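Here's what a typical entry looks like (GTP 3',8-cyclase):
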Amino acid sequence: MKDQYNRTIDYVRISLTDRCNLNCIYCNPKQQNLCSKKASLPLSDEQIVRLCGLFYQLGVRKVKLTGGEPLLRDNVPDLIRSLKETCHMQSVTITTNGVYLKQQLAALVQAGLDGVNISLDTLDEKHFTKITGYPFLHQVLEGIHSAMNVPDLNVKINCVPFEPYQNDLIRLAALARDRNLSVRFIELMPIGTAAGQKGMTKQQILGLLEAEYGPAVLYEKRLGNGPAEYYSFSGFQGKIGFISAISHKFCKDCNRIRLTADGQLKTCLQYEAGTDLRKAMEQHATDEELLSLISEAVRRKQKEHQFWSDQKACGLEKHSMAQIGG
């Protein structure tokens, strides 16, 4: 499946819910507690499986399950099994905050889960509580430990770095020294409630890490489905990754689309516009009609985001990252 700029689209991120059990300062602050408010009615498992079958027909082979917090949804293992066995997806992975991962991991892996990304911005208990709003660091670390004990499960740590906590990043990176996992630093994207906040760039973080651990060596091979750029450090078992959407825009290689919890097909994270696939299904659209809607949406996929620009683009996303399944 190609867009108008000849990019191959083979990867879909699917939000299972816009609810979350944390209130991270860059995603879901306390004034928008999504566990205490009525969440959007999510697509059913049957609707997700139907759409993924159509995505597969169009060339999509990789699925990332996101949220909100996807493990707040019931029967996630059943959905993973369907995506693997019914939709024939080559890779099904999940991004989670890790709070419920330990309890659910065995069932997820048995269902066919290929990898897990765990969001963690600090190993300091006080800082974790300040960033997320809750003292759940111990549960997250237990989830990471459990995931590391699963053979062949691809484990990645996702960190959104902030300057007030930059010393925490050195300690967090050390997880990849002592374990065969990847620690990825993701530049803050100014979307929804994160607009106006200041994160850290790849170069700032790389400078901190090289001062502590020595020279970083670019890893030439591709790891995973996304745009992360990886580095090796001497003595490290795992890799350090950077997702640098702001300082090193990678839109020319974008291979993804997103399906929100309420059924909007989004082709770029920055823009609010989407194609309402839920409405189409509720109006009894045929598979052929849905394939046409998806193909047309992908064909019109935007060339690039405008995060770097002083000019304000039209139709920018106003929802939080938790609500759009970033």
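The chain has a mean pLDDT of 88.

More examples are in the samples folder.
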